[in-house]
Amino acid sequence: MDPHSTAQDVHRCDFCETAIVHSYCDFCHVSLCKPCIPDHILDGYDKHKIVPFHERRSTLIYPKCETHSHKICDFQCENCNNILVCSSCMASENHRGHKFVELSEVYKTKKEVIEKDKVELENLISPTYEDIALDLENQLANLDGGYEKLTTTMSKQGEQWHREIDIVINKMKTEISDMKVKHRDILQKHLNEIKQIQSLIKQTVITLGELQKSTEVSPTVEYCSKISEFNKLTPKVRVSLPTFIPNPTNSENLYTLFGKIIPLSTATEKNRLSLNQVNTSVRELLDVPKLVATIKTGRRCLRNITCHNEDNIWTSGETNEIKCFNSKGSLLQTVYTKSGKFPDDITVYSDSNLIVSDGNIKTVYKVNNGKTEELIRLQGWTPFNLCVTSTGDLLVTMYSDDETQSKIVRYSGSTEKQTIQFDDEGKPLYSGNSKIKYITENRNNDICVADFMASAVVVVNQDGKLRWRYTGHPSVTKNEPFILRGITTDSQSRILTADSDNHCIHILDQDGQFLRYIDNCDMATPYGLCVDNTDNLFVCEYFKGNVKEIKYLK
Length: 554
Known about the structure:
Blueprint (H helix, E strand, L loop, with lengths): L22 E3 L4 E3 L4 H4 L9 E3 L22 E3 L5 E3 L1 H5 L8 E3 H39 L1 H17 L6 H48 L3 H5 L5 H5 L4 E5 L2 E4 L7 H5 E4 L2 E5 L15 E12 L5 E6 L5 E5 L3 E5 L5 E6 L8 E4 L5 E5 L4 E6 L2 E7 L3 E8 L5 E7 L5 E7 L2 E6 L16 E5 L5 E5 L4 E5 L5 E5 L13 E6 L5 E5 L4 E5 L5 E5 L7 E6 L5 E5 L4 E8 L1
Antiparallel strand pairs: 1-2, 1-3, 4-5, 4-6, 7-10, 8-9, 11-34, 12-13, 13-14, 14-15, 16-17, 17-18, 18-19, 20-21, 21-22, 22-23, 24-25, 25-26, 26-27, 28-29, 29-30, 30-31, 32-33, 33-34
Helix pairs in contact: 3-5, 4-5
């Protein structure tokens, strides 16, 4: 039991340890009963500060002046790098004409910073790291199940083959086991890093708590916030499972025909602190995509679609009307292009304002409450397709007036920040013409373009360096040329692109590996695509004029 307290938590004198406390020495931080006060101040009254017990820790303890030892420093000199000074220092020739700040005000300001930092660490930063650690732990927990499912699929494929294929099966399982070890090592490495940072955060919170209670001026004034360091979150690691793609049985080239293991791919997502973190758990593809709803827009030649959620789905076709529907098919709003002709593309900002690319007048403008605000006006180039990035920038594909060049330009507001046009060898990244080049940004900040005339998905990183091209997937059922239209990405960094003439959608991983088709749902001539914030896929059917909502993730 605490000798200074009773069961009723009555404070006792620190000196005699029996009498009820009456006062408190703010300099020595001891509780005193009335009779013990004279003994405590025997060594000099000026060395102590006796206050009523309920006013304890209310006296600021200023440091003594190094130049004038009999005085305390209660000011800072702004002209001398905020050094602490006493009244004698202020009156000296060295500080004549200087500007001084009361140390008590600095102390008060720093106390507010300490309080704010502690709250932010406890309520925002620390929980965010806990979420990251939990996500990594969940990936580790689900690792065996995922790999077990993978090896089971391989085994089922192997059962259909002749006995000699067992050698190939065992070889592939060995590759899978090696990948599993690497997979685990990657996740464990990043989890250990996160745990280490969490430990530093906890220690910092403890230190801040001590500073909150302290009345020592020097350590408080010397406190430097570490919030900016902790705000530099480590990238969220997303290591995808390898993918096994079986091939039809064939006695020749057994290893190649049996299937293909797509190696581990590690995706990092830039973390942003938010009180409403988006769920980024792993979501697998459905075995059979499902048609959720069909919205009849009432017009043919439907080209473009954009949305953040299923309550506001903007569409446009080959008229001057841009219409907004909800998922039930109700028309919510109609706006008209400035040029009076059909728009080249539409997108929406995070504030839900509509952005329109109107190549007829070489402008990109924002629509808010029926009013337009011009963002970009070009000369010598015509804007085409649009994409709003995760940082709020606007990516615009455009082509030259002579229709021989194409490029992507990144804008912040109306300010041009970046141009992407050539690869490292000086060759054009995109076909030079006035044809569509739908554009989207992936979760890893890659920029993905569906180049219609090149019949290719062209992917560059955020610095504009070419990563890969995808020109279609061999299929015995898709007999028409690979003609790309719309393109979009989902929360899993998968890329979806519309193959109009084959009436299907290709799903790729972030490294350009083909995963599967969406070729059911009675889909005809898919054109524009978008995925909302809950991974619902919306598809424009060009000739029918319908929007189909499709669920393709578990």
